[in-house]
Amino acid sequence: MSTDSERERAELVASDRRHLWRPYTSSEDHEGRDPIVVVRAEGPWLEDADGRRFLDGSGAWWCNNLGHGHARLRGALTRQAEQFMHVSFAGTTHAPAARLAEELVAVAPEGLSRVFYTDCGSAAVEVAVKIAFQYWQQNGRPERRRVLTLPGAYHGDTFGAMSLSAVSEFSAIFEPLLFPSERGEGDGLDAAVDHLCDLLEAEGDSVAAVLVEPLLQGASGMRRWSVDRLRRLRDVTRAVDTFLICDEVFTGFGRTGRMWACDHADVAPDLLCSAKGLTGGMLPLAATLATERVFDGFRGDKRRALMHGHTFCGNALGAAVGREVLAIYREEDILGGVPERAALLAATAERLGSVAGVRGARSFGMVAAADLGAAEGYHGDLGWRVHDAALRRGAQLRPLGNTVYTVVPLNIAVADLVQLLAILEESVAEVLVG
Ligand SMILES: *Cc1c(COP(=O)(O)O)cnc(C)c1O
Fold this sequence. Notes:
Elements: H1 3-19, H2 27-32, E1 38-42, E2 45-48, E3 53-56, H3 59-62, H4 71-83, H5 95-107, E4 112-118, H6 121-137, E5 146-149, H7 159-164, E6 182-183, H8 189-203, E7 207-212, E8 216-217, E9 223-224, H9 227-239, E10 243-247, E11 271-274, E12 286-291, H10 292-296, H11 316-331, H12 338-353, E13 358-364, E14 367-372, H13 382-393, E15 395-396, E16 403-407, H14 414-432
Parallel strand pairs: 3-15, 5-6, 5-7, 7-10, 10-11
Antiparallel strand pairs: 1-2, 2-3, 4-12, 8-9, 11-12, 13-14, 14-16
């Protein structure tokens, strides 16, 4: 460890503290916690300025599905960069965007045939809800205005996405500015879905859409709900002819072991939101997929168009990388490698479940999670104590309050996964058992 690198590291951290405003970070943490100064990242590993290596246990915030620095993704990015990087997506089109749409549709749940590009998951959700709302406004059913969601929902941090998400520590202060959405109620998510279904059966005529994170809520703490209920929700939304929007920003691209969480239930929504894994977590690109019926509702004169767009719609670099991601899934059988790794996650969850003070240890595909101690919400400190214990052992495990979890690349080397899970178990034991 040279003094040069130490000095450089210290200067960088000082500059960060002087000028940066960090996401989800109190000034207390910003100033009090030493960040990992990343200089390189490969596979599940982050390497810092001092040459130390850390396993990235939360997968670059749940988007790094193929590992850092994947050679094929780097190649696709440079090849595209040599041609062109970005052009407006108005009056122009290009191979990366058009081909990616075609290839996405080919792997999407049946019937989704149209792709609208944006640049983050929040936007993908907002666009889906705008589409659903506008559809009914201009197709003879203007009374369909309500949007139903689930308790604990998280669909992003922009105003529309916050309005559609459960009130949380993140959004409570903005409540006066949010538009109304309605959440199902009940003891647990399955009961809330049943409540939504009852509501739809009684008042479905006034509902524009139901928006859910299918089978697994991410940010509320990796909460499962059942395949049966997703099927029921699809049946009931169809029966009352309203739209089902599945937010697969987190669950998509194999996170739960199938390409889409919807695939576990053989359910095809009317609208599907994808982001995070779409570029293997390399570039900000998002997509909202819709059925032909939905798209048809926007045919006609100019006033019927969806008047929504972002500067970086259809970004060529993102789209080129997205195509390569799909090629890697096909050619390297990424989903085929999940069961072996998912079994390790499941075994860890089972062992964690028998540690005193651990509640509801669980896993689903490539996600493992456990709640620690008594329920304390997002600001509980047990999760952060596990984080600190894990960091000393060489892994970064960002918690969701007192929920600890791992979200690692689908193709993580088994030895690396075994190491990460050992660190998770040892760190939980250190904090809870001492
Ligand atoms: C992360 C996430 C979002 C928001 O995506 P951003 O790219 O952070 O805006 C939306 N929905 C779900 C389910 C997510 O996990």
